[in-house]
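Annex B.
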Amino acid sequence: MMTVPGAERAPADELADHRAAAWAAQRAHVAENSVFYRTLWLDQAPPERLEDLPDLPLSDKSQLRVAQAAHPPFGNYLAAPVADAVRLHRTSGTTGQAMNLALSARDARITAAVGGRCQASAGLGPSHRVVHCLNYRMWMGGLSDHMTLEETGALVVPFGVGETDLLVRTIREVGIDAISCTPSYPAVLERVIAERFPGIHPRDLGLKLGLFGGEPGVDDPAFRARMMETWGMQARNANYGVSDVFCNFAAECPHDTALHFMGMDVMHPELIDPDSDDVVPIAPGRRGELVLTHLIRDCQPLVRFRTGDILEIVATEPCACGVTGFRFRVVGRSDDMVVVRGLNMFPSMVAAVVNSFAALSGEYRIRLDTPPPYDRLPIEAELAEGAQTDGLAEALAREIKARLGATAEVVLLPHGTLPRTEGKTKRVIRGYE
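AMP-binding protein: predicted structure tokens.
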């Protein structure tokens, strides 16, 4: 069993039989071959209906880490012979110990197909020449995301990270008009252009489409406006995924900046309250932690896996683009949430305020030097080049108080103080750990 062609545009009732058949095969596969889940479920049989999945306990990343440490290299949730694995990836490790990910040939093909839907939804197609600037060194974002770009029919240039001078020259020489990277990577390019390519501005490179993923930031209207002003390109949230589950299964479209869920034929999504674990309906305006179950996965199938991502559902009716999956925004990660006097603060919320100040570069950190509780939100914000500091810290603190409700303790840093990263940028620094 494989993906359903055009599943992202199929009504739910048309996918119902496929999803039921896929789960029937998958539940048997997991129950028979995953020691991890048999142990977690106390040998209880998984339910026959997807609607009854909440009868099973949740699984999470901490459990997988323990399983891999005890049963290296893939953990005892590997449900296929090692010989069936044709590719090994590793997670970025941004939120903890890096994990080894095994894919069968079928797993890899499905991963590419689902991710291709997302890249196409964001506007990439056969007429484009796209340079892929994510780390190819084992990370899912490298080769697997490269394959999703190829699914659109675009000409894909596998560049990776590093050698930024060569990247600038390649973009100009090859006539590249699209880039796939993290939202923070254009800042790296801007610095290199300013320092080593006198007389050239980012707009001169001719990039028209930015396909972003791997970290938050694209939801911010100020970020999109800056990309258009500085680069002359449309910024699209094209690559939302959870490495342990699928590298890319949601993206925006030209009609709506919310992420569209595009993997209903291969995954079953749930929302839960991250504190009580109670199921939350997937309905407009509701918020909860995303929980995913593989419907088709050979090597490392996951059932009721807590992603740690907090979602807010925007809409459930079909989009004008034709995609039928629910639309959502990622509010933040449960492990990046900082509680200030009972208010839940996420980095994406802080970013929206920081980016509204032209005198700031957009780079910031939330630096926590002591364990909770917190009565203030400590923020380090970097100045834009040549910006004046008079009253700026106080103005930022006032705006955070007005928009987020939290009292902020703002420290301004000189331009260029905070590192620009080629990979994921960690915004919350817990110095006490």
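The mean pLDDT is 92. The longest helix spans residues 12-33. Further annotation is deferred to the next reporting cycle.
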